[in-house]
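Translate sequence into structure tokens.
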Amino acid sequence: MSARTHQPTDGPAGSNSKVPAARTGGAVSAFSPEVEAAIARQRHDVARLHAELIRWGLVIWTGGNVSGRVPGADLFVIKPSGVSYDDLAPENMILCDLDGNVVPGTPGSENAPSSDTAAHAYVYRNMPEVGGVVHTHSTYAVAWAARGEPIPCVITAMADEFGGEIPIGPFAIIGDDSIGRGIVETLRGHRSRAVLMQNHGPFTIGSSAKDAVKAAVMVEDVARSVHIARQLGEPLPIPQEAIDALFHRYQNVYGQQGDDRR
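Result follows.
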């Protein structure tokens, strides 16, 4: 099924039955006020967060993307394909179901969604805890991906944020859910919120779109630091018990209770 067309279904396996949408003649005609409000918030957040990718130097031209799951509904919001970051706005973000189909008649639905939409949709279908997905082409992380080499956990910031190494995912061609399958297969059961898809680049997941963007920023930071360290000599490994302790502290003690991941 094309990502440009939306056909009503009972939803993918394991879909959230809370989608409060009215149906007329078999097609979605309106969402409840609660879901409409959640969609509006996600459109605003996802549009705004793309500016963070530019701010931190993680993308060039129109590459990369951010998506966010709509709470309480089997929907997510993602950027349109090939549109300048300067032109992104809440009203041209694209609403999709969890099969990656554009919801017709919604703002932005006249445009094609990101070419990574099928990958994002696969992650949301298979990892219900994920609230945001980000893909960038950040230089140092892509360099590790080009070598097919995981980033070893040799600095405490990596232990804090990722709980160990950042793994390599399989080589996969863009355009269908192959990349999504690789992301899920690699990260399911792994503490890392980032994967370096071989010969492609980093994908990150988070409890929200903002959380996934933070992970993308941190991936590039540690990829650069560890790369530089290796130019100077062999980095020193961190003992596993110290990695575990650092990860637990950062995830459960550091920061404020209102943080996205709490």
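Note: The chain is about 35% helix and 15% strand.
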